[in-house]
Write a structure and sequence with these properties.
The chain is mainly alpha-helical. Helix content is 70%, strand content 2%. The longest helix has 27 residues. The model has no long low-confidence stretch (mean pLDDT 89).
């Protein structure tokens, strides 16, 4: 079985990047914080692409359509939902909803689409994207699915990152307000679907040569920097997590990493497990540590401590999950 050790390593490193997004290690240095913040936008797309890549490698695509591994698909959705359910329960303890009709309405919407805590939207978005792709592939080709999802991504980026461009356009401005008050833009439709489609597409297309991949990564990274500057300075965007350049950059980076080989080590298998657990539960430790520490300029301190605790927690869960009586802990990664 072909192994992708570099992808596993990169996914773990991006999990650490996600911790930094929420811990704000450079919060006391505005220029550095803004510049670093643009680069961190690549982390969540990478999680979507890598998850889809490993999942859709189980599919068999051909001229007559596609065949997928139904048991594997159901297992994936089941494990993801259980992880999401457990994470939801955990985060409800630190951010409960009011026991009112409005609270129930907010919880229902958040649980279905946005996640009950800021970063948990990734899991319902991932399940939505995988399910929608599975349905769509029964009727259209993978390339058509990618084109449709890219259209939604483009629309979402325009209405989210570049929303201020439509301040004087009543109808579009009303649509933006409606979306922001309901499903938002960090969801499967506008965000996750295109990167899941990209991950599936990468299982079927030949990768570009190594040097060309590296050049494209540098080029698209430069475009991301430019786009980030435009969104921040010129557009004065309120939300800067959707960028047009993220899509080609994710493609080029993943294509590059697919060609980098590293000698097999057991640690890489563990890193894939640790990355998901670290991504999901790190915010819990950020909150707990933030409430315990009462010191100024604590962003970097919280980042370092939250990273250490999150990784140790992931290692502990991975170790205990190997025990016969604690096998259910495997649902936590």
């Amino acid at each position: 079985m072909e192994r992708f050790n570099v992808i596993d390593l990169a996914k773990f490193l991006f999990a650490i990047v996600v911790i930094s997004i929420h811990a704000h290690p450079f919060q006391n240095y505005p220029m550095l914080n803004n510049a670093y913040g643009v680069f961190t936008r690549l982390a969540v797309p990478f999680f979507f692409v890598s998850s889809a890549f490993f999942l859709f490698r189980k599919y068999q695509f051909g001229k007559g359509g596609y065949q997928f591994n139904k048991p594997f698909m159901l297992k994936f959705l089941k494990r993801t939902f259980v992880l999401y359910l457990v994470a939801t329960i955990v985060y409800l303890f630190i951010s409960p909803y009011p026991l009112t009709l409005d609270g129930l309405r907010r919880f229902s919407l958040d649980f279905t689409v946005r996640g009950v805590y800021s970063h948990l939207w990734f899991l319902p978005a991932l399940m939505f994207s995988v399910f929608v792709m599975t349905v769509m592939l029964n009727y259209v080709s993978l390339r058509v699915v990618f084109a449709i999802s890219a259209t939604f991504f483009a629309v979402g980026t325009l209405l989210c990152t570049y929303a201020h461009l439509f301040d004087g356009v009543p109808f579009i401005h009303q649509i933006i307000r409606l979306l922001n008050s309901t499903i938002g833009f960090q969801n499967g439709l506008f965000y996750g679907l295109v990167f899941v489609a990209l991950g599936a597409l990468l299982t079927q297309t030949s990768v570009i040569p190594l040097r060309r991949s590296l050049l494209l990564v540098v080029l698209f990274l430069g475009l991301l920097v430019v786009e980030g500057a435009v969104a921040t300075i010129a557009v004065k965007s309120d939300a800067r997590y959707l960028f047009f350049s993220l899509l080609p950059l994710s493609w080029a980076l993943f294509s590059l990493l697919l060609q980098v080989k590293m000698r097999d080590r057991r640690i890489f298998g563990y890193l894939r497990k640790y990355s998901t657990n670290t991504y999901i539960f790190h915010y819990l430790f950020i909150v707990l540590i933030s409430r315990l520490l009462v010191i100024p300029k604590r962003g970097m301190v919280i980042f370092v401590l939250a990273t250490l605790v999150s990784v140790l927690f992931a290692v502990a869960v991975g170790y205990l999950a190997e025990k016969r009586r604690l096998g259910f802990l495997k649902y936590l990664y």
